[in-house]
Amino acid sequence: MKVLIIDGQGGGLGRQLVTAVKEKLPETEVLAVGTNSIATGAMLRAGADQAATGENAVLVACKRADVIIGPIGIVIADSMLGEITPAMAAAVGQSRARRILLPVNQCDNLIVGTADLGMADKVREAAELLRGLSD
């Protein structure tokens, strides 16, 4: 299974996701794509098998992934303080991959109906959901 993790800004969420996926499913191929080099570096240091940066990397990786994981902002154009371009959001939304999106109430996008969990709990839940998809 090829898992694409997308993150931006400082890459903290992406780093946590890479770590959790590698702990729960060590045989899984993890490709990390950051919207900037800081996010990419954080995910690479966390153990991603491959990493790339920028819009074109998102467009290409979305075509190859079986599962895409990231904050919900990756499907909203101009979110994450403008780091997610309309083309990136469309590539994630139109991908044939399954998407595991973490609710993050930031950058003017407020999600209702979700449990008020800490980020570590959300990451753990995402990794468990991925494990269920691999069965």
Give the tags.
alpha/beta, single chain, 5 strands, 135 residues, Rossmann fold, 5-stranded parallel sheet, globular
Write up this protein.
With 135 residues, the chain is α/β, with parallel strands linked by helices. The chain contains six helices and five strands. The protein has a single domain (2-134), classed as Rossmann fold (3-Layer(aba) Sandwich). α1 links the parallel β1 and β2 (29-34). α1 packs parallel to α2 (37-45). The longest helix has 16 residues, at 119-134. InterPro entries: DUF3842. This is DUF3842 family protein. It comes from Mordavella massiliensis.
What count of structural domains? 1
| The level-1 CATH class | Alpha Beta
Detail the poorly predicted runs.
none
Strand order of the largest sheet: 3-2-1-4-5
Protein name: DUF3842 family protein
Pfam families: DUF3842 (PF12953)
InterPro entries: DUF3842
Organism: Mordavella massiliensis
List the helices and strands and how they pair.
Layout: E1 2-7, H1 12-24, E2 29-34, H2 37-45, E3 50-53, H3 55-64, E4 67-71, H4 79-82, H5 86-94, E5 98-102, H6 119-134
Parallel strand pairs: 1-2, 1-4, 2-3, 4-5
Helix pairs in contact: 1-2, 1-6, 3-5
How would you summarize what this structure contains?
This protein has 135 residues and is an alpha/beta fold. The protein has helices at residues 12-24, 37-45, 55-64, 79-82, 86-94, 119-134; strands spanning 2-7, 29-34, 50-53, 67-71, 98-102.
